[in-house]
Design brief:
Number of helices: 16
CATH architecture of the largest domain: 3-Layer(aba) Sandwich
CATH superfamily of the largest domain: Phosphoglycerate kinase, N-terminal domain
CATH topology of the largest domain: Rossmann fold
Helix content: 25-40%
Strand order of the largest sheet: 5-6-4-1-7-8
CATH class of the largest domain: Alpha Beta
Largest sheet: 6 strands, parallel
Distance between the termini: 9 Å
Strand content: 15-25%
């Protein structure tokens, strides 16, 4: 068990909280503030317990000086101020005398947000490469470090591993929830345990398939990656997405887990991927040479439903079609609807899958939607996350 924010007396302490404020911003306006809202429980806890709160986050990728103009955290500071109903002190730098002096004058219950940690990537990738000097410097600004940015915990950065290496540390409520939902579910699932896998590339999911195939009762495969599995099973897939390099892997998995892996039996196809294109639904062995399979069909939905309805634990990672385009959203949407009527523990692995479920209005019908696509993927692969591994264990 990792130490948490509850394990520390925060009163009067400078508490650095690494949050995930990597939100979409267009023309200076935040278009989705879910990640900010997800951090509020930990921030409010620190405020209630009279901490001097110092927040750190990255935003986007910083490769040039021009990138700094569109990736400032200032709009986040304004939105956070509204959500917390208190002033947020925003310092538009990542190090220096102004930052140090402002922190030294910080009062209990005040909240300060430091500028985008990835601005330091212009300094020889200091943030992303976990520069030792930068980690020590940031640690010197606080007394306690709390990691609550699950979405970056699969990376070893100066703002998580670097600071945690030099300060008393723990995790926040968001990471605690993520670990309970994902890690514990994988370790001790209630059976039947069914995994839904989608997305485009087999290469993105190899380790996950290998890990979960040993534990799951059924693996339902859709999305673009399904066509490589179908090709591996001897079915012609027309012009559908094919991951040639991993055909042998798919063949191996199909042979090894023939009783577990369930593939689509029909497909929604088109000649090209775009809005308002003409579509054709057919059985999987009837895909024409010039057609691209872009969604699971109605018969596959019914097939998947049979397995899902008897499941007690369901993990879903990857949409089942090009859901961003209306004509190819039906499969993903219908599986959302099926899940909403099932009494089971239902975990969604973040990223596009989480976005689809929220978009279609089924957010409340699942047990947990992960806030970190990459981090949840690593956990589903059975890997450790460096940003969490560095955190001290409870005695």
């Amino acid at each position: 068990m990792k130490k948490t924010i509850r394990d520390y007396d925060l009163k009067g302490k400078r508490v650095i909280i690494r949050v995930d404020f990597n939100v979409p911003i267009q023309d200076g306006e935040i278009t989705d503030d879910n990640r900010i809202k997800a951090s509020l429980e930990t921030i409010r806890y620190a405020i209630r317990h009279q901490a001097k709160v110092i927040l750190m986050s990255h935003l986007g990728r910083i490769k040039t000086e021009e990138d700094k103009l569109t990736n400032t955290l200032e709009p986040v500071a304004l939105r956070l101020s509204e959500l917390l109903d208190q002033e947020i002190i925003f310092i538009d730098e990542t190090r220096g005398k102004l930052l140090e002096d402002t922190i030294s004058e910080l009062k209990e219950k005040e909240v300060l947000l430091i500028e985008n940690t990835r601005f330091e990537d212009l300094n020889d990738q200091a943030e992303s490469q976990n520069n030792e000097e930068l980690g020590k410097y940031w640690a010197s600004l606080g007394d306690i470090f709390i990691n609550d940015a699950f979405g970056t915990s699969h990376r070893s950065h100066a703002s998580n591993v670097g600071i945690a290496s030099n300060l008393a540390n723990g995790i926040g409520f968001l990471i605690e929830k993520e670990l309970k939902a994902l890690e514990k579910t994988i370790q001790r699932p209630r059976h039947p345990f069914t995994v839904i896998l989608g997305g485009s590339k087999v290469s993105d999911k190899i380790k996950m398939i290998e890990n979960l195939a040993k534990k799951a009762d059924y693996i339902l495969i859709g999305g673009g990656m399904a066509y490589t599995f179908l090709k591996a099973s001897g079915i012609e897939i027309g012009s559908s997405l094919l991951d040639d390099e991993h055909l042998a892997f798919c063949q191996e998995m199909l042979e090894k887990y023939s009783d577990k892996i369930i593939l689509p039996i029909d497909s929604v196809n088109a000649l090209e991927i775009k809005e308002n294109v003409e579509t054709r639904e057919c059985f999987i062995n009837e895909i024409k040479e010039n057609e691209i399979g872009l969604d699971i069909g109605n018969q596959t939905v019914k097939l998947f439903k049979q397995y899902l309805e008897k499941s007690k634990t369901i993990i879903w990672n990857g949409p089942l079609g090009c859901f961003e385009i209306e004509q190819f959203s039906s499969g993903t949407k219908k599986i959302c609807e099926v899940l909403s009527r099932i009494d089971a523990k239902k975990i969604v692995g973040g990223g596009d899958t989480g976005a689809a479920i929220i978009q279609f209005g089924y957010e409340e019908s699942v047990s947990h939607i992960s806030t970190g696509g990459g981090a949840s993927l690593k956990l589903l692969e059975g890997k450790k996350l460096p940003g969490i591994e560095i955190i001290e264990n409870k005695k």
